[in-house]
């Protein structure tokens, strides 16, 4: 996806591959902003509460960075160094964002959810944004996990300890609880006008639980049971 692509066009492309991103697309600012703003701008800006970097990082995206004729590829995981600081060298710019296609390997199942918590439902800055992805084998064991949070640190960042608690383990409530506990070792959030540090940590842990409830191999909950805005599949009415 070219860095100059509008947010609206970029999300249309992403949701074609990952329909789970529809909710965050519709809540990403307003339509006029999505038509004027660009994906590359949102990524290069490097805000710790930007909504595009968490979901792109959860998808394993990388950036093409260009200076003259020289182009290098950098994993988005490694791009942010500190608050509003990144790997861009003088004269270098983000040319494009590369996003892997969804894996369709037999016997493997990929789950992705992005949750945005803000004071207003629409057109508001995130207090916490969680982009959560796991890949399971056909026995329900976690092969890989990418748990990414915005609003929890000086940069958008993966929860390395929580991810480690998941890999190689059955996707059960016991494994979930271990990952929730590990989150406290991954982040020390700050308090500000949007949320206290205690609230942010509790929300991050609860969103991980919500993700598990939606994706657990045994009786996953329907979206209508997890989202007050979800429509009933039969009647079309809001839950």
SS class: alpha+beta
The share of residues in extended strands comes to 15-25%
> Which descriptor suits the 3D outline?
globular
Query: Main β-sheet: number of strands, strand sense, barrel status?
Result: 4 strands, antiparallel
N-to-C SSE string, H for helix and E for strand: HHHHHEEEEEEEEEHHH
**Helical content class:** 25-40%
Protein architecture, described:
The chain is α+β, with helices and mostly antiparallel strands and 239 residues long. The chain is 32% helix and 23% strand. It contains eight helices and nine strands. It has helices at 7-17, 22-26, 31-36, 39-45, 52-58, 160-166, 173-186, 197-215, and strands at residues 62-67, 70-75, 80-82, 85-86, 93-98, 108-117, 128-137, 142-150, 157-158. A four-stranded antiparallel beta sheet has the order 6-7-8-9, sandwiched between helices. A three-stranded antiparallel beta sheet has the order 2-1-5. A two-stranded antiparallel sheet has the order 3-4. The longest helix has 19 residues, at 197-215. It is globular and about 50 Å long. It starts with 6 loop residues before the first helix and ends in a 24-residue tail after the last helix.
């Amino acid at each position: 996806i070219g860095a100059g692509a509008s947010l609206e066009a970029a999300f249309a492309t992403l949701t074609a591959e990952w329909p789970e991103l529809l909710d965050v697309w519709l809540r990403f600012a307003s339509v006029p902003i999505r038509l004027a703003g660009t994906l590359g701008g949102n990524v290069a800006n490097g805000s710790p509460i930007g909504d595009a970097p968490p979901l792109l990082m959860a998808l394993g995206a990388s950036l093409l960075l260009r200076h003259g004729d020289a182009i290098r590829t950098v994993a988005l995981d490694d791009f942010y160094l500190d608050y509003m600081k990144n790997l861009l060298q003088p004269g270098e710019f983000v040319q494009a964002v590369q996003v892997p296609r969804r894996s369709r390997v037999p016997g493997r199942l990929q789950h992705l959810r992005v949750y945005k918590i803000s004071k207003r439902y629409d057109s508001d800055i995130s207090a916490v944004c969680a982009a959560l992805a796991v890949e399971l084998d056909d026995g329900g064991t976690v092969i890989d996990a990418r748990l990414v949070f915005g609003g929890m640190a000086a940069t958008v960042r993966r929860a390395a300890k929580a991810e480690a608690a998941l890999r190689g383990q059955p996707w059960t409530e016991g494994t979930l609880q271990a990952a929730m506990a590990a989150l406290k070792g991954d982040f020390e959030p700050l308090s500000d006008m949007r949320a206290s540090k205690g609230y942010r940590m509790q929300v991050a842990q609860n969103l991980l639980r919500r993700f598990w409830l939606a994706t657990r191999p045994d009786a996953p909950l329907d979206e209508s049971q997890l989202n007050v805005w979800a429509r009933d599949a039969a009647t079309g009415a809001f839950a």
